[in-house]
Design a protein that fits this description.
With 718 residues, the chain is α+β, with helices and mostly antiparallel strands. It contains 23 helices and 20 strands. It comes from Deinococcus actinosclerus.
Length: 718
């Protein structure tokens, strides 16, 4: 049965919430951060001494004063109840990669049968959710249930709304009874502080004033697919795994390249507008929306924020995208590769460093060849990426991201840096002793007086690079669309802190020895670039030649799969790095490695079981039923020919399912590492064989007999 018409008809019934009488400017100004407890809101509700104490924590990193907690809690409760909240939750990021929340009511019964609303400073600062069901990687036994959430005052509280009310969400860290981090926020906060402690002394060598603080900034682009909700629920693979385990390629995919930046379909645009309004209310500065490369694929992107807040906002963005889609009869797919044969989805992380005065340390200015501070910090990033390629690759490793990394749609699994022609030329000139600036930008003439001349950038962009300089920041393009960005940013902050510390020590030694700042920085930049320029590559990262050159000529790591990468996480150099900056202890690092193995195993295991189930109960029966019809129809040449094709593909599928069943039943060993390798080396190839046969069947079984929505329907029916 063809459901295309039903889906299109249902699409006409979507709901939009607009304010017809208000201008867009009025809507945005009234909505933006309206559900966020901002500093301005707190200032208006707190006494001056209390606000100054809290402000010292937020802006200068001072230790939080517990004595102000009751006052802040009262202000927070009052504000939240004015917004319609009846409950509060400590909102945290466990090592599942998603978020978690346990709701408690503000209501506190009195002895006389009445009730009042209460919320104390003790309840604000700390809660005790059951930690037994969250992954710990061996940090504690399952029966040890105690865990603590601790208020993160640096990330503002906010309101999450639902159909029948609202909840106050308090961003928190999550730790075990023994004080070890069971979340992604705690190491990120530690890494932000590590970066500040490393970069601030370096800035003082360049003349920065006392009181300067440094944090990393981030803007994370989010790619996603939208499909009709009806199709989603008729695909067990999408429901259970987030990706299609079957699906023959339609006659048209993304070959015509007409979807990218094309006109956004009306229903999708209404959905985007709704989601953006909700994100604005949460103070999330989304800026860009557009069609992506693949049909049915889209992107939303914010401007930069402090990285801890950006990580919180990224989790909220994914939640809002998923929840809002249902209002429009759609489902948002955030899996890295929901459809084979078309581009998957990533999450480009635009990273930089900024002072509390708003100075971007990676801003080259108009004369980057003379900007010593910029060259110094850029050199540190080059050094960091070269020395810690493994950590950057590990930070984006997952079973789902393995489907896109290394293909002609995403960066290769080899980590390299794109600097562009101008910046590469500057560093090459410094290394050679020539100095100065070669590549100039200038103006781009378009050949007609009707069009204005455009400023030409001195370097092109490179979409094949996993780590690219893009004007005043580095764009880490290998992150997966469904993952939390906290660990990749934790890694970036920590490795750059390490590189800056080393270079700052060299610079101080030269200055103490009597060298002038210009020559000392020039010497350090020259030596650093010379030692680490193997990581710089401005060419085609998809080419076979680059893979050969990177792996054999430059000796760069090529960690093709998650399991190739993850076992390096606890290498001695990595343990020493995280311990040096107090970001992760050896136990915390080992726990994260164990969890990555476990998640990989469980992800592929679920996919393998789902593949077998669908092939046995949906696809094979459809083929058998169609064969029965063909055999009953008579013995014409056409019928016999089609029957022979169907029978051959069905037999191939049956044999492949039997082989997959055997691999699903096997464990590969008792340890999770062995199980994970069994999934990669045995189950994934067996799944591929089942899919190959099933996709053959899809092309020869009559459409009315095929039990699954097809790629043609899911990608193109909006």
């Amino acid at each position: 049965m063809n459901h295309d018409f039903d889906v299109i008809s249902a699409a006409r019934n979507w709901r939009t919430d607009t304010v017809a009488t208000a201008t867009p400017d009025q809507i945005i100004s009234s909505v933006y951060a309206s559900d966020v407890l901002t500093l301005e809101q707190l200032k208006a509700r707190l006494s001056k001494p209390t606000f100054k104490s809290l402000q010292a924590t937020l802006e200068r990193g001072a230790t939080l004063d517990p004595s102000i907690a009751d006052t802040v809690a009262l202000a927070m409760k009052t504000w939240a109840m004015e917004k319609g909240a009846t409950h509060y939750t400590h909102w945290f990021h466990p090592l599942t990669g998603s978020t978690a929340e346990k709701h408690d009511s503000f209501v506190s019964p009195n002895g006389d049968g009445s009730a009042i609303a209460t919320f104390s400073g003790k309840e604000l600062i700390q809660a005790e959710p059951d930690a037994s069901s969250f992954p710990s990687g061996g940090l504690r036994a399952t029966f040890e249930a105690r865990g603590y959430t601790a208020w993160d005052a640096s990330s503002p509280a906010f309101i999450m709304r639902h159909a029948n009310g609202a909840t106050l969400c308090i961003p928190t860290a999550f730790a075990s009874w023994t004080g070890e981090a069971l979340d992604t926020k705690t190491p990120l906060l530690r890494s932000v502080e590590a970066l500040n402690k490393a970069v601030t002394p370096a800035l003082k060598l360049f003349g920065a004033s006392e009181g300067t603080r440094v944090s990393s900034t981030l803007g994370a682009e989010q790619e996603y697919f939208l499909i009709a909700e009806e199709y989603y629920y008729r695909r067990p693979d999408l429901v259970m795994t987030g990706r299609t385990l079957f699906g023959a390629q339609p006659p048209r995919g993304q070959e015509l390249e007409d979807h990218y930046f094309g006109a956004i379909p009306d229903r999708v645009l209404s959905y985007m507008t709704d989601a953006e309004q909700q994100l604005y209310a949460l103070g999330i500065p989304v800026k860009t929306r557009h069609n992506e490369v693949a049909p049915g694929q889209f992107e939303i992107a914010p401007i930069f924020e402090d990285s801890n807040i950006a990580a919180d906002h990224q989790q909220l963005t994914m939640q809002v995208l998923r929840n809002t889609a249902r209002k429009y009869g759609l489902v948002a797919l955030l899996h890295e590769k929901p459809f084979a044969g078309v581009n998957g989805s990533g999450k480009h992380c635009n990273w930089s460093m900024s002072t509390n005065a708003g100075e971007n340390l990676l801003e080259p200015g108009d004369t980057p060849h003379e900007n010593l501070q910029f060259l110094f910090f850029t050199s540190a990033v080059i050094k960091a990426v070269d020395e810690h390629q493994d950590l950057l690759r590990i930070s984006v490793a997952s079973a789902s991201n393995d489907h896109r990394l290394g293909a002609n749609e995403a960066p290769p699994a080899i980590i390299s840096i794109f600097l562009g022609s101008e910046l590469s030329d500057i560093f090459d000139r410094l290394e050679s002793g020539q100095g100065g600036r070669g590549a100039e930008a200038g103006l781009l003439g378009l050949g007609t007086s009707v069009l204005p001349p455009l400023p030409r950038h001195a370097g092109d962009r490179n979409r094949t690079s996993p780590f690219a300089f893009t004007g005043n920041k580095f764009e880490f393009r290998a992150a997966g669309s469904s993952q939390s960005i906290s660990f990749p940013i934790t890694v970036l902050n920590t490795i750059v802190a390490d590189a800056v510390s080393a270079l700052a020590a060299e610079l101080k030694a030269k200055l103490d020895g009597g060298a002038d700042l210009n020559s000392a920085v020039a010497d350090i930049v020259k030596a650093t670039y010379s030692a680490h320029k193997r990581i710089v590559f401005n060419g085609d990262g998809y080419s076979d030649e680059w893979h050969q050159e990177a792996e054999h000529g430059r000796k760069l790591l090529n960690l093709r799969t998650t399991l190739d990468a993850v076992h390096h996480l606890t290498d001695a150099k990595n343990g020493a790095l995280f311990e040096k900056f107090k970001v992760l202890s050896d136990r915390e690092l080992a726990a994260r490695q164990e969890i990555m193995y476990d998640i990989y195993f469980k992800t592929v295991n679920i996919e393998g079981e789902t593949t077998e189930y669908m092939a046995r109960t949906m696809i094979l029966p459809a083929a058998v039923k169609y064969l029965s019809e063909l055999h009953a129809a008579g013995g014409s040449k056409a019928i016999k020919g089609v029957a022979a094709e169907v029978e051959a593909a069905a037999d191939e599928l049956f044999d492949a399912v039997q082989a997959l069943s055997a691999q699903n039943a096997a464990t590969g060993g008792d340890e999770v590492h062995e199980k994970a390798h069994h999934m990669r080396d045995q189950v994934l190839p067996a799944m591929s064989a089942v899919r190959k046969a099933a996709d053959k069947l899809e092309k020869v079984v009559a459409e009315q007999h095929w039990p699954l929505p097809t790629y043609r329907q899911m990608l193109f029916v909006k």
